[in-house]
Amino acid sequence: MFYSNIFVVTSSLILIIFIKNKPPTPPSLAANTKKESYLKSFKICLSNKDFILLTFFFGLSIGSISTLATIVQQVLQPFNYKSDESGLIGALLILSGMIGSGFYGFMHDKYQNYKLLLIVGNVVQLFSWGLFIVFLYFQ
Questions:
Q1: 9, 65, 114, 136 — which has fewest CB within 10 A?
Q2: How far is Cα 54 from Cα 50, in angstroms, rounded to an integer?
Q3: 39-48 pLDDT tens trace
């Protein structure tokens, strides 16, 4: 134990003495450029209409899925689903989300259009929610 402590202290002192805070030349072009302040960047983003729409629809998607995953038991309980069945439905929702994410990634690579994919994804999600509700009531 004593020898390992000596090794750690010695190697730490060597690093503190001989290693500099910054390299003599920047490691990349991005490290050499001047960075804008966070507030200025945030204002630029808020002035962009497409950014606001993308943020809204992405937040809508994530929020609705998170809400459903959180309250799936409470939603299915009035329809006489047991907790095991609700857990299975929740797992299927997660699995279908993983499959959809893979498909979404493939489509993004093919079309390179976030806005179109988010709009189509939200319409499909709205349609899926509607089917989920209809199938619950008319089981």
A1: 9
A2: 6
A3: 999 999 999 9
